[in-house]
């Protein structure tokens, strides 16, 4: 604990000095040198990075120029054997650093044996001029590192993938181990989709295809998923089917879990595709707080999903499943009826649930029935429907109210 605290405090001190150098270089240098420590000797505690590393990482071009004028060593590595040039995403900074001892930086290998092209691909550098310069310098676009990784298997950005493919990167040199490792480390969604059309039909792809859908959904809700993967899954129907089929064939349990997840997060495109493909899932799979697909669909409605609910109700499911608050699908639907109406729901959804056998007088942890909640929300159409459906008017909730 004390060591971590000391490291944290030293990092704060280092980056405070870095900010002062950026704001007032001459005055700060004068103060630091008066303390008897050369500017080149300062390092952060976590990564052992110099001010030159920090300037490259934080895109401070002006400070970088001043540090280079003081003959900062561009070949001095940090704790992870990274040079300052490895940390920038800006072409102007990259070119400036490379101009200082260019041949040595082009020949430099990290402790993993990665050259400058490997590191640029791994970190998502997508400046085509810089990548072109590296290729023109003689770095092999298909050169393998000691761990077998290629620039193409390390590329985590779509722009980098496109550049490499355009300049002769060979897809046939990839394999399942390389692509799976990239997928589980730092690959971005855009890079995956740039590469997928080139590998989805290769023999080895089936070994890792099940990894993609859970990775694509991750912890995203509807908003983020619609921006990250929905369009690509919609447009690439053949790849989509491969990914869905592979997940189900790999694990019925994992496919069932993912279906429950997308239902609860309003990722309706995936919910529909699961139902379109008609897998033998566990449609009553419950998450750690008890939400089944049906409970998820009626609890979070930010997209039209009444068709999904209707299709799910045709399956052999437990319509009386409850979450950790003892809420049934009917109770959840009535509690959210105000917002549900914005997304196409009417009393007919409640009717579907009742006709399918949901217990109309079930009570949640507070003793509320669907009728209590309908009255409380002043949803008079629902009140009328529930009474017509023989809801018990005499049941009291925990507060003693009927």
UniProtKB/TrEMBL annotation:
Keyword Repeat assigned: yes
Per-repeat ranges for ANK: 366-398
Species per Swiss-Prot/TrEMBL record: Anopheles triannulatus
UniProt feature coiled coil, ranges: none
Short name of any one Pfam family annotated for the protein: Ank_2
Protein name per UniProt: Putative ankyrin
Keywords for this protein: ANK repeat, Repeat
PROSITE patterns: ANK_REP_REGION (PS50297), ANK_REPEAT (PS50088)
